[in-house]
Amino acid sequence: MSFDLVFFGGTGDLTWRKLMPALFQAFRHGKLPPGGRILAVARDDRSDESYRAFIKERFVDVESSKRPSDDEFARFAELLHYRRMDLSRDEDYAGLKSWIDERGADTVVLYLATSPHLFPVICEKLGAAGLNTPQIRVVLEKPLGHDLASAQEINRVVRSVYSERQAFRIDHYLGKPSVQNLMALRFGNALFEPLWRRESIANIQITLAESLGVGTRGDFYDRTGALRDMIQNHALQLLTMIAMEPPSTGDADAIRDEKLKVLKSLKPFTPETVVRDVIRGQYRGGNVAGQAVPGYLDELKVPADSHTETFVALRTEVQNWRWAGVPFYLRTGKRLSARDAQIVVNFRQVPHPIFPGAHRANKLVIKLQPEDGLELHLLAAKGSGTNDALAPVSLDLDFDKVFQTDRVGAYERLLLDAIAGRLNLFVRSDEQEQAWRWVEPILDSWQRSRENGGEGPRGYAAGSWGPAAASALVARDSHAWSEEQ
């Protein structure tokens, strides 16, 4: 199958930091279909050779195990091409169409690695140039809009040019191997299904923690914040995969139908419940990994009076028969104690403990990053005498050690899926809009609070696990975050 893969924003950070290294790994693994061309388009005036040199220079920043040798890069670089393009000029889109048509590839993937506000104009001009034929797919990078109205407008324009099956809305968390194992855990094994419900599970926690700050992206981050950046997309997608009903088939729409049902079942927020069930924070100066780091308000390009949240913790429920009454806790933040993404399923205690120490409940930890694996925490007898007290033990499964292969990264998997036309790991427009619909009352409440001179985000020390109120949120239900258990 021949393919053309076109990157709009071909000299941008996302392209050279994430997409090109992912494509190189696919090339190294022999996964790229033969007969492919990779075209970068941007405003810079470059030749194919100068663009190849540009990418090679930036491969120095790739971790050593994934860095190409000169020979490997030379072979990969034969696929790379560059075209100067002004995204506002109709004639440039006509020129792009001519470049694509001259070969007539079986599949054409147009990846919009640009600012989302450019998505509508790019899609309209692609449609006007005739770059929307059935073999063409468009990939839309997150964030897709900054609120429900802007997301709906982007989707309206995209749907006017492309069918839903041609639109690939990417969320790179869905490409992580550990998330694939979440699907396998739930729907490939009979062991957990009888327990995967309110009668057995006390609460579920989703943590997406980062130890880094905003770095040089202060201006972007201050317009976005943690709720838009992480909760509305990554965290909610993980929640849907944990809570969804078994789909009837492995077809993309069967899976996405069940995810949408979860989003529609989430308990809606009101102004009162936002105050009670949502904690927002903003990091102050502190210490991370032995290094002193500045607070958010001291970061480059961040306004001194910013109310943008760098931390969010919230409590919600899925209001259906399987999950009624089970709290779901979502948490994300920057400059936290560790880089850690995980899902913790806390099971209920035994109904009648007969052993000393049996008060500690079982839990399943699904590790997403930096490790990729599963931990099952149980209780076992010590066997050290007549005392029948139980001690905690854990079964630890490290997928990297078990499979002992160079595993496919998130962007590598998603790029290959886009080329192959597999939609299972991409977000449908109704999913995405429903997620915005659910978070919008939180955004509105915070905006009204700011306009009325209300309290901004709570401060927390860099290197901590966020504001103390986040612990109190969970303790209110007599639970605790995983690191506090």
Automatic annotation (TrEMBL):
Matching InterPro entries: G6P_DH, G6P_DH_C, G6P_DH_NAD-bd, NAD(P)-bd_dom_sf
Molecular function via GO: glucose-6-phosphate dehydrogenase activity; NADP binding
Residues engaged in binding substrate: H172, K176, E210, D229, K334
Pfam families: G6PD_C, G6PD_N
Catalytic activity: D-glucose 6-phosphate + NADP(+) = 6-phospho-D-glucono-1,5-lactone + NADPH + H(+)
EC number: 1.1.1.49
EC primary class: oxidoreductase
Superkingdom of origin organism: Bacteria
Cellular-component GO terms for this entry: cytosol
Binding site for NADP(+): R43, D86, L87, K142
Domain Glucose-6-phosphate dehydrogenase C-terminal: 183-481
GO-annotated biological processes: glucose metabolic process; pentose-phosphate shunt, oxidative branch
Pathway(s) this gene product operates in, as recorded in its UniProt entry: Carbohydrate degradation; pentose phosphate pathway; D-ribulose 5-phosphate from D-glucose 6-phosphate (oxidative stage): step 1/3
Domain Glucose-6-phosphate dehydrogenase NAD-binding: 6-181
Keyword vocabulary terms for this entry: Carbohydrate metabolism, Glucose metabolism, NADP, Oxidoreductase
Residues forming the catalytic site: H234
PANTHER family listed in its UniProt record: GLUCOSE-6-PHOSPHATE 1-DEHYDROGENASE (PTHR23429:SF0), GLUCOSE-6-PHOSPHATE 1-DEHYDROGENASE G6PD (PTHR23429)
Function: Catalyzes the oxidation of glucose 6-phosphate to 6-phosphogluconolactone.
Family as reported in the entry's similarity comment: Belongs to the glucose-6-phosphate dehydrogenase family.
Record-given protein name: Glucose-6-phosphate 1-dehydrogenase
Gene it is expressed from: zwf
